[in-house]
Write a structure and sequence with these properties.
Layout (H helix, E strand, L loop, with lengths): L11 H4 L9 H21 L8 H14 L3 E6 L7 E5 L6 H8 L3 E5 L8 H7 L3 E3 L7 H13 L3 E4 L17 H9 L3 E9 L17 H9 L5 E6 L11 H8 L17
Parallel strand pairs: 1-7, 2-5, 2-6, 3-4, 3-5
Antiparallel strand pairs: 6-7
C-alpha cells in the first residue's frame, strides 16, 4: 500500500446508518432533478472559467447541498486570498461543493471520477487535477504541478486522507501534498466537515464509502430528513511555521471529537 493509495475500513454495511425517517420518494426525485439541473448549469458556465465571480461559485456550490435537502452551516475564519492549499477530512461526495463554499479551488481527485456521469465532465471542465493513485512514480510530478498552481495564486483543494471515511472514524492526513505548500510558500487552510441530524446526533447517512455506488449514496442523502452539514474553517497555517511536511500535515489534521449518537473512535489508515 503506497502513501498515495490509502484505504479505509469503512463500508456501507458496517458504518452507514439509516438516515432515519425518510422523505417520500417523490421528494427524493425532485431533489435529484434539482441537483442535476444545477450541475448542468455549471457545465454550461464552464467556458467562462475564472470570469465567473467567486461569490457566485460559492453560492452555486451551497445550492447543490441545499437542493439535495442538506442545510449548510459554515463557521470560523475566512479563507485567505492568493495561493492557498485547502485541506479537509473526507466523508462524502458532498464534501466537494462544501469546500467550494469556503473558497472555489482547483480540486485534486482520483482519475476514476472522470468517468462519473455529469459530475465527471463538470470536474474535468472545472480544472480538477486528476491523479493516478496507483502510480507512485507520478507523485513527484503531481506535487510539482500543485506547487506551480499555488505559486500562480490559485487555491487548490485536497482531501489528504486519500479515501472517504464514515465520520465515526477518520484517517491520517498523508504528507505528500503538503510538500507542495512548503515549496510554494503558501498558507494551508484546514477545514473540518461533519454531518448531523436536526436533533444534534451525528449521522453517517451522507458517507460515500467502500463499495457504495454514487447513485445509492445520492438517493440516501436525497431521501433523508433533517441532514445538516457543518463546515468549520480553522485559522490558516502560515508559511514558515513548520519545518517539514510531516509537522505541517500533523498541524492541519483536525482533532477528532466524539459526536452525539456514537462511541468515539479513531482508526489510523
Amino acid at each position: 500500500m503506497s502513501v498515495w493509495l490509502p484505504s479505509a475500513p469503512c463500508t456501507p454495511r458496517a458504518c452507514v446508518e439509516p438516515a432515519g425517517r425518510g422523505a417520500v420518494a417523490l421528494w427524493g426525485v425532485l431533489r435529484f432533478v434539482a441537483v442535476l439541473v444545477l450541475l448542468l448549469g455549471g457545465i454550461v458556465l464552464l467556458p467562462l472559467g475564472r470570469r465567473v465571480p467567486a461569490p457566485w461559485v460559492r453560492r452555486w456550490a451551497r445550492s447543490i447541498a441545499w437542493a439535495a435537502g442538506v442545510r449548510v452551516r459554515i463557521t470560523g475564519s475566512a479563507a485567505p486570498t492568493g495561493g492557498l492549499l485547502l485541506v479537509a477530512n473526507h466523508i462524502s461526495w458532498l464534501d466537494i461543493p462544501l469546500l467550494a463554499s469556503v473558497r472555489p479551488a482547483r480540486m485534486i481527485a482520483k482519475t476514476e471520477i472522470r468517468q462519473w456521469p455529469v459530475a465527471g465532465p463538470l470536474a474535468a471542465g472545472a480544472g480538477v487535477v486528476f491523479i493516478e493513485r496507483d502510480r507512485l512514480r507520478a507523485l513527484p510530478g503531481t506535487v510539482a504541478h500543485i506547487a506551480e498552481l499555488l505559486r500562480s495564486g490559485a487555491a487548490v483543494g485536497v482531501f489528504p486522507e486519500g479515501s472517504t471515511w464514515c465520520g465515526r472514524a477518520q484517517g491520517t492526513f498523508r504528507r505528500a501534498v503538503f510538500q507542495a505548500a512548503l515549496d510554494a510558500q503558501v498558507p494551508v487552510q484546514p477545514v473540518r466537515i461533519h454531518y448531523r441530524l436536526a436533533d444534534g446526533h451525528a449521522s453517517t447517512a451522507p458517507a460515500f464509502v467502500g463499495e457504495d455506488s454514487l447513485l445509492a449514496s445520492l438517493w440516501r442523502v436525497m431521501t433523508a430528513r433533517g441532514l445538516i452539514a457543518e463546515v468549520h474553517v480553522e485559522d490558516p497555517i502560515m508559511p514558515g511555521t513548520h519545518p517539514d511536511r510531516r509537522a505541517l500535515a500533523r498541524s492541519a489534521q483536525p482533532a477528532a471529537t466524539p459526536q452525539p449518537g456514537w462511541t468515539h473512535a479513531v482508526l489510523a489508515s
